[in-house]
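can u pls check wat happens w/ P-hydroxybenzoic acid
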Amino acid sequence: MRTQVVIVGGGPSGLLLSQLLLKSGIESIVLERKTKDYVLSRIRAGILEQGFVNLMREAGVSERMDAEGFNHDGTLIAAENATFRIDFVKHTGTPVMVYGQTEVTRDLYAAREAAGGKIVYETENVIIHDAKTDAPYVTFTTGGQAQRIDCDYVAGCDGFHGVSRRTIPTDVRREYEKVYPFGWLGILSETPPVDDELIYASSERGFALCSMRNASLSRYYVQCPLTDKVEDWSDQAFWDELKRRIPDEAADKLITGPSIEKSIAPLRSFVTEPMQWGRLFLCGDAAHIVPPTGAKGLNTAASDIHYLYHALRDHYLDKSDEGIARYSAKALARVWKAERFSWWMTTLLHHFPDQTEFDLKMQQADIAFLRDNEAAQKAMAENYVGLPY
Ligand code: RFL
Ligand code: PHB
């Protein structure tokens, strides 16, 4: 088999790239380790930057998102003695959109299938060969059959545990990592959200987040020790803990119900450099991870896809390889800013087990500064709605 671009990984990064390439008449094949149902069962991100929304429109897959997504003009920050709002539209002129990653992925699969785009599911033992030459190829097995695809380029969109990053030799690859000493326990419940906007809450008992997917589907999180297991948390224990961490007026109006999903995610900051090796490009979680505070994971994947899509377009349609040569540097420049913002927001709002009294005072002063200072609010709003591509 032969194609122009092999895309390893059928998560949102890989699917969005395949759909954008298709719009420009560039052929690709997506290789996905799991089944479609498995990918669609993952509950992950919920907030889309305008840049992501625009890419979905450019890819021609925005119809349902535009009809069912909700614009949020701001967010609430709650701390021990202050609840205040960051007004995104006032400070940046731009809202963010609430539309879940599951729905984004569902729409991308539907579009890809409708266009007859090729996705190979349940691929095993994917190996990327000769990425440093002009003739790379990818081998894998599916349904017990060994396969080979020759191509011009390989896009590594296979997430943090994929093979693409590990294809780059260790003497070329440099990794930067910070693991946080806590996780997020999240639940999804078929209850109306407690507020029209998200509430990021810092409390002595730890961080909590009130989020949503739509008017009748809520997503809530509480910071928990890494040693906790999902089975340790009954729904009642979750709701009780959430109520202790959010402002009283929110706790009083919180509508609870059975969880339809419950999971614990560890928090990590991670970047690998470079994001390109020969004809292999890394995109999304394959190259970087952020803690979810600030909702930058999926959105940073989207900016990588924007840069790579334009680089490939320039190569195939305009015969220019400048975008290809500059991909890693351009993507990383934006990635590091998203890393900084996610790390800052995580540090600002979480309880750290080894926190000193001084650290606590710094956190309180940082929150008070944000509450009282318009310039700080503007800086936060600019980062939250997404820095320019
Ligand atoms: P994904 O979504 O991990 O998709 C990668 C795909 O590659 C497949 N794969 C392979 N396929 C073929 N061969 C191999 N060897 C393969 N190895 C892996 C996988 O099956 C998968 O389908 O990466 P992508 O596309 O880069 O998308 C990134 C986003 O998914 C990610 O940034 C966000 O979901 C991160 N994230 C969150 N981001 C937010 O902005 N807000 C959130 O609230 C939020 N919550 C989360 C999250 C990530 C989580 N993880 C990773 C556990 C909650 C969780 C639990
Ligand atoms: C979510 O709705 O899942 C969500 C929203 C905002 C975040 C993280 C997660 O910062």
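The chain has a mean pLDDT of 97.
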